Amino acid sequence: MALLDVNGLKIYFHTRDGVVKAVDDVSFSVDSGETLAIVGESGSGKSVTCYSLLDLLPKPPAKIEGGTALFDGEDLLSCSLERMQHFRGNDIAIIFQDPMTSLNPFISIGEQLIEPLIYHPDKARRLSREDASKRAVELLDEVGIVDAPARFNCYAHEFSGGMRQRVMIAMALINEPRLLICDEPTTALDVTIQAQILELIKQLQQKRDMAVIFISHDLGVVAGIADNVIVMCEGTVREAADTESVFYRTSDSYTKRLLAAIPEGAKTMANRAEEGQPLIEVSHLKTYFNDYSSPAARAEKRQVKAVDDVSLSIQRGEILGLVGESGSGKSTVGRSIMQLVPITSGSVSFNGTPISGLSSSQLVPWRQRMQMIFQDPYASLNPRMTVYQTLVEPLLYHGLANSNNIEQQVQQLMDDVGLARASMRKYPHEFSGGQRQRIAIGRAIATKPELIIADEPVSALDVTIQAQVLDLILDLVERHNLTMMFISHDLSVVRYISDRVLVMQRGSLIEEGKTETLWANPKEPYTKNLLSAIPLADPKSERERLSS
Amino acid sequence: MLRFAFNRLLQAIPVLLIVISATFFLVHSAPGGPFSADKAVPPEVIRALEAQYNLDQPLWQQYVSYLGDVLQGDLGPSFKYSGRTVNELIAAGLPATAELAMYAMLVALIIGISAGVLAAMRPNTMQDYLPMSAAMLGICMPSFLLGPILVLVFGIHLEWLPVSGWGDIPGDKILPAITLGTGYAAYIARLSRGGMLEVLSQDYIRTARAKGLSEPLIIFKHALRGGLIPVVAFLGPAFAGLLGGSFVVETIFQIPGLGRFYVQAAFNRDYTMILGMTVFFATLIILFNLLSDMLALWLNPKLRQQAGGES
Questions:
Q1: What are the backbone angles phi and psi of residue B164, rounded to the nearest 5°?
Q2: CB-based contacts of B52: which residues, under 8 Å, 6+ apart?
Q3: How close A294 gets to chain B, by Cα (Å)?
Q4: Is pLDDT larger for residue B32 or for residue A459?
Q5: d(CA A238, CA A213)
Q6: Reported CATH class of domain A4-261
Q7: A292-340: pLDDT as tens digits
């Protein structure tokens, strides 16, 4: 018998709008030393499945309607809370997606680390504070926290994202669990940090012969580390097999769709960049912010050099990719070009005319000619405005429509971005994430701009939706003759969409080139690192990449 | 932290100045004067009295000289209690009022926090509805109603506790403290329920659960500190409110506190007394607000470190 055997698991959510079958008849098993990946898009039930194993679901609304989950022969779904507290953190541990919100901001990480040891439900196994602290420091050291004894008393906000996730891993491992559940542990992290964390989990698993359940939406991540994969969709298991079968020999239509949606390879559309006067010219742009991060920084009036001497140009018709890890200043470059943040020095010219330094009223006519698409369509649309109101606002503000043709213009926009005309009286919350991003794109192209700056427009979307939105963007660029700056941390997406790529690191441009040239022959070590850290959605080549 | 406190104290100066000026001109614009209520006083006596207290001078001169006195911490002589200064009267009434406020705060905190935390642990069940309905009742119930009811039940009917007095008979401080604290307990219950609900839905509470910690440990160690920040922020205004708002309770239970001076002063047009009490309470409100803000700051490690470096 396997270490964990889940059979016929059913979890329904009883909401006001009726019963939602979040997990419907799911079965799988995982054994010591094995890695099982659960793959699916948001709402597929993959996290709910795993949370139910540790009784972490809010009940109500969630209710377990059937099935068993035998861990070492004992059913996790029907055991008492007291018994469950024995399993939690001791036999079964879990790492969550966002290490910032998953660590208590009020308690030092050292104290949080030793809690499973000093409050062990089995009194005989409780450690003293000193012994527990010693063990925690050793573990922090093992997961790669430099200067662990000094960092022991720090708080979560004093760590970077990758370091926080290392702390989370140490916390999960402190009682030597036999099963480790990883819920999208690298989704909130940069690609190079992701590679380090995946490597760390792999090593720790081998050393301890743990079973690992790895939840992810990213098939690239899964390809390299999983022995077996189950693909979930809308609460049911679409496919369950060993990794190679799923990637190479799947017969399931949904799995095929998932695999096909991964942006792969070069841009297929021709480069439409025109010669001559660039549409955007940025020279020696510096955007500094005041640094409030630490008392010393504030006292000395230190500044964060978000963008430090960046010069670039965008030709008319070109799609320029801007890549870099979080904190590299890529979004600030976009916002500085749009004049959404005050720049410290340097200049931005639009079609040969300098626009930096203009007052906000002087900028109005320019705003019509350049628009922005933001990352999170949940946050960037006003929840109290209907789609119609959202789309009409820029048209009326810039005097591009009158009462006779406005209805028709909005209908045209809805058609353009692939939304049903009938839904234009609806509010943002009535749409899915992908549809919302379509609304945001519609809002951006409403004024018929020449330039669009898209700041991570697909990062918040599921992979199949992401592919649709990318194709929509490419289609619109061609039809409306747009020039675009595409900002993303996802290198595969940037490769799929851009003609030329700029790489940013710590506020500076460090490399630029035609997309394919750069991919084939990166010069800077940073770019090489970045490119080699991209997980490939192909088990054989991904494993070769990892072992090399 | 010290710099934060210093900045806040600097901001308090214009606030106090506005309070003093507004009160000064308001009480002087009210009809009548401190000596007009007394019957059959010859005009020359009134004039002599007014001259003694500088009331015959132009208003702006009185204002300037009063400001000068206040700056030196002198709130002036009382017009009604002859021979005694406002400072003395406040010093005489403050101990009882402060003690009452402290007990009331203790009652409010103990009842309020436990009710709020209990309610937040099982939202939308009886464990939530019961304490929260009681809290609603507590907010609605004025102390001039609650006080007599408590006296009737526990003092007269059951004869468990004394019905009035302060420090004369053992147990005579219990009913006033409960009467004054109940309304605040209700507010604190609602604040702590809201704060705890917010914190209990955080990811880090799920993490604590996933670590196998027991529910009491999760509530007391992981949730309480964040969940009570709204309560801490309310403590300052609440304590100042308890000090300034105890008049009704002091009257019901015959407590020799500040409240009765304040109300009497208004009826008597005892200008210096009204002004003195107002300045005193305004200063207390500002101070307690500052204290509770500093406490809230100190509870959050991130803010603590940011503010800490400023000192």
A1: -160, 180
A2: none
A3: 6
A4: A459
A5: 17
A6: alpha beta
A7: 766 666 677 778 888 889 999 999 989 999 998 877 888 899 999 999 8
Chain A residues whose beta carbon lies within 8 Å of the beta carbon of residue B218: none
How far is the C-alpha of B14 from the C-alpha of B21, rounded, in Å?
Answer: 10
pLDDT for position B309: 45
Q: Which residues of B touch A155 (CB under 8 A)?
A: 301-302
Higher pLDDT, A144 or A527: A527
| Region B176-205 average pLDDT | 90
| Domain at A316-343+357-514: CATH architecture | 3-Layer(aba) Sandwich (3.40)
With CB atoms and an 8 Å threshold, state whether B302 touches A119. Answer: no
Domain definitions of chain A by residue range:
4-261, 316-343+357-514
DSSP state of A89: T
Q: Which three-class secondary structure state does DSSP give residue A63?
A: strand
CA of A170 vs chain B CAs: smallest distance (Å): 12
Q: What are phi and psi of A401, to 5 degrees?
A: -145, 155
Please give the DSSP secondary-structure letter assigned to residue A270. P
The per-residue pLDDT for A294 is 63
Number of Cβ atoms within 10 Å of the Cβ of B152: 12
The single-letter code of the amino acid at A133 is S
Query: Which residues of chain A have a Cβ shorter than 8 Å from any chain B Cβ?
Result: 54, 56, 85-90, 93-94, 96, 98, 101-108, 115-116, 119-121, 155, 157, 168, 171, 292, 294-296, 298-299
Distance CA A415, CA A476 (A): 11
CA-nearest of B292, B120, B124, B239 to B190 is B120
- Same topology between domain A4-261 and domain A316-343+357-514: yes
Handedness of CA A268, A274, A279, A283 (dihedral sign): positive
Burial class (CB in 10 A: 0-12, 13-18, 19+), A37: buried
Alpha helices in A109-160 (DSSP H): 109-118, 129-142, 148-151
Alpha-carbon gap, residue A329 to A483, rounded angstroms: 21
Token couple for A292: 């409030």
Ranges assigned E (strand) in A351-397:
353-354, 370-373
SS3 A65: strand
Tell me whether residue A15 is exposed, middle or buried, using C-beta atoms within 10 angstroms of its C-beta: 0 to 12, 13 to 18, 19 or more: exposed
Helix (H) or strand (E) holding A479: helix A463-479
Q: Give chain A's count of helices (H) and strands (E).
A: 22, 20
Question: Sheet containing A236-242: which strands, arranged edge to edge?
Answer: A92-95, A179-183, A211-216, A35-39, A228-233, A236-242
Interface probe with B: pick from A102, A184, A291, most Cβ of B within 10 Å: A102
For A421, which DSSP code? G
Mean pLDDT for the stretch of residues A279-284: 91
Note whether B207 contacts A: Cβ–Cβ < 8 A. yes
Q: What are the b/e assignments for B164-189, b being 16+ CB within 10 Å?
A: eebeeeeebbbbbbbbbbbbbbbbbb
In chain B, the domains with their CATH numbers are 86-308 (1.10.3720.10)
Distances A246 to A50, A231, A249 between C-alpha atoms, Å:
21, 9, 6
Confidence band, pLDDT 50/70/90 cuts, at residue B113: very high
Distance from the Cα of A102 to chain B's closest Cα (Å) equals 4
Q: Report the pLDDT averaged over residues A354-359.
A: 86
Output the DSSP codes for A211-255. Answer: EEEEEES-HHHHHHH-SEEEEEETTEEEEEEEHHHHHHS---HHH
Both structure tokens of A352: 């040969």
Question: Nearest CB to B209: which of A86, A88, A93?
Answer: A88
